Amino acid sequence: MARNAANTRGPSSSVPVVSLPTRFMRFHVRALKEAAHRLFTTPVTSFMTMLAIAVALTLPTAMDVVIRSLSPLSHVLQQNATLSIFLKSNISDDAAEKMAERLRKLPQVGQVEFISAAQALQDFKAASSLGPALDALAENPLPATLIVTPSGTTVGQHALKQLADELSVLPEAENVRVDVAWIERAQAVLRVIANAMTALSLFFVLTVVIIVANTVRLSCGLYRDDVRIAKLVGANDAYVLRPFLYMGALLGLFGAILAIGFVFLAVWGLAPEVDTLARLYNANISIKFLGWSEIATLLAAAIGLGAAGAWIAAAKHL
Amino acid sequence: MIRFDHVSKRYPTGQAALRDVSFSIEKNEWVFITGHSGAGKSTLIKLIACIETASSGVVSLNGHGLDRLSRTQLARHRQNMGVIFQHPTLLHDQPVFDNVALPLRVAALSRREIERSVLTALDQVGLLDRRHALPAALSGGEQQRVGIARAMVAKPALILADEPTGNLDASLSKNMLELLFTLHRSGATVLLATHDLTLIEDLPYRRLHLAVGLLEERLVLKSEHGA
Questions:
Q1: Phi then psi for A269, rounded to 5 degrees?
Q2: Which of A212, A239, A261, B164 is buried most, with the most CB atoms less than 10 Å from its CB?
Q3: Do A3 and B108 touch (CB under 8 A)?
Q4: Closest residue to B103, CB basis, from A3, A23, A233
Q5: Below-50 pLDDT ranges, chain B
């Protein structure tokens, strides 16, 4: 009923009725142009805002790139895990070699290296300064050892421990030790870094929203008269809000484009370091730049965050 | 079309602008609102334009209270209305053309339609050659004419004019009144508030006279200019 009160146009009005899709398109095109115009009229402020957004987006994006690129390292670390089977003192070298041959045929086992008691003593002497003291011993205290490297399918702590349990019941084995403590520590560090980056990313997401909201809030003050006058001639809330939303979206978009550029530079700078790391672990690791889908996701997220920040700031001023 | 039922308006400062004002205006009627400065003419216009709300009483349009309009309905109400202010409220960073085009942009007209209507309106108010100028470069009278062009450009059903000729000389004032007559003849309802009785003394239209917020209906004559 009240709609009729506000829906009468002059009998001779020459203003044509515009279809809904046409209105939608025209409103959005005009809002986009208006938003671009507003950003262009304050170029320094706009650029500084984009730069701040870029910085906020660069760190989590770059860290994501690094973590994803280094994720194969975790697998490599797992593969580097070994089991040491310390043999009983009465086991001869020949019996130990035969045992090694038997173990090599197991599907869970990749490689087996035999270190005789004499070899172990020699290595220990070379690695330590206890040579004369060891010479004074009546007999070699070190046992012969089989170093077992699990096969590619035996990955993970559980599988390693299961293999250790199976090997420990062998009659020749005195003791079996799984050398995974350092791997667990390394993986724990990687997990902490990944979790910290997730938390930090949320913080930076919030930062982007706040940066855009603050810029749009200032812009609302600047365009207060425009909003007032537009509403006076019949603009609805959506009409006056739209340019601000596009403004936020454009700030987010250009901030993300700058961030992509910064990440590219970071990747370019880090590549030699990662190559060095890869050589150290004999791993096939290289730092990879963002893929197309990741770039699209980053741009879409930045646009969304920008628009959200703009909405938070502008909706209050309507 | 427009009805005031025992409407009073008191501003937060305590000043009573309107006191128990009741009247009605029919569709396609022309009404002058007269009174001295501070009599409440502008307040009355602002109540119809929903810039202010009544402290008590009801202002209604086509039987529906304006205080009950939703934000969307309010926007539509204003699209069907052209308001000429005593002091033109223009966008100072935008040229004359864009100021006049604003109601048509809000109505989502095409660029071509906007250009045609705006140029016609600017021609009617004699500012066609000033269409690229910023408001700051215009005289007070020219700014007032931009405001008049903006109010008329969408050919609204209702024209609210608050001292529209306040900044214009006698000749231009008559021209502007002629423009409003043209709109009135084509079906628009016009409320024109003025303190300048010499401007309207020969015009045979209904007058609502306000004296310190109180309404006196002075005379009702049949319009010679009406449709």
A1: -75, -30
A2: A212
A3: no
A4: A233
A5: 220-227
